[in-house]
Amino acid sequence: MNPLRQALNLLQVIKGVWEAWKIVREFSPCAIFATGGYVSVPVVLAGKLQGVPSLIYLPDLEPGLAVRFLSLLAAKVAVTFPEVLKFFPEGKAVVSGYPVRKALLEAKPEEGRRTFGLEDGMKTVLVFGGSRGARSINRALAHSIDTLLDYCQLLHISGALDYEEMKDLYNSLPPEKRKRYRVFPFLYQEMGLALAAADLVVSRAGAATLGEFPALGKPAILVPYPYAGGHQERNARFLEERGAALVILDSDLDKELLPAILGLLEDEGRLKRMAERAKALAYPDAAEKLAEILRGLSPGG
Predict the structure, then answer these.
(1) Which of 206, 195, 178 is nearest to 59 (CA)?
(2) What are the DSSP calls for 97-148, one per residue?
């Protein structure tokens, strides 16, 4: 790395630690909860210097450089699955599972179908690519949509960037197929209902997939984002190896997405087994476990 860039980065860290020091001193927390990333480094370091214990939560299956460094400063590290314990010294890490918001856990399939105006008795596929969407998934879906809508109904969260294009696609469909396709730029409050209504999910493989899909018992086709430093592919392969998902690489979407979806929709037994294997990976009390660890770090907790 350029020496000037290194010097500037060091100055940024020092500035961050100073700002974090002031915040920690003013707020006087009993403990610090951090989810990794470089933005957490100054806060955890400032806490360490002031005697405030930290809990680092790692949602992915392998720690990045920031989490590896933070684990040296933290009192405890919480991880999503037992397979991640090997990256930390014995006794430092504990398995908590991935905390899933209550609204997702409480959503009912029948309520989801009613909310989105879906047909009973027809398989539903939910397609999304994260908070900003995923252009490659959107384009592959567009190429396959005419055939797909003969076999299933689609809930599609396109992201804002491609929404107008996908809305034009919706308008171009014949009426009998248009009623089987729902497209949205983004969902938040209704996301739990969309997941509840789905028989199969197609998505990227961010850390949330390790918690939300098992918690809801959702079989998935996962398309790892190819520029995520390998984290998403490791997440996806973990679920695939345990029979809860199929993995399609981004470069293979156009040729593999349609046959993968149709193959699963036509194999009810396999779809059911994937759902069961996903559910077996769930930690429904993950949020309570994290809270318990934090209480244990706090003086008098």
Answers:
(1) 206
(2) -----HHHHH--HHHHHHHHTPPTTS-EEEEE-STT--HHHHHHHHHHHHHH
pLDDT at 1: 55
Cα gap 299→237, rounded to integer Å: 40
- Domain that includes residue 160, residue range: 102-279
Q: Are residues 118 and 261 in the same domain?
A: yes
Between 1 and 156, the more confident residue is 156
pLDDT at 130: 64
Residue 272 pLDDT more than 90? yes
Measured CA to CA, the distance from residue 109 to residue 195 in angstroms comes to: 8
Burial letters for 71-108: b for 16+ Cβ neighbours within 10 Å, e otherwise? Answer: bebbbbbbbbbeebbebbeeeebbebbbbbeeebeebe
Whether the CB-CB separation of 103 and 189 falls below 8 Å is answered with yes
What DSSP element (H or E) covers 34? Answer: strand 32-34
CATH assignment at residue 219: 3.40.50.2000
Q: What pLDDT sits at residue 118? A: 96
Residues 87, 112, single domain; the answer is no
Beta strands of 130-256 (E only): which ranges? Answer: 153-157, 181-184, 200-203, 220-222, 245-247
Residues 183 and 214 in one domain: yes
- 166-190 pLDDT, tens per residue? 999 999 999 999 999 999 999 988 9
> Could you tell me which residue, 12 or 179, shows the higher pLDDT?
179
Helices (H) and strands (E) in the chain, counts: 14, 10
Q: What is the pLDDT of residue 10?
A: 75
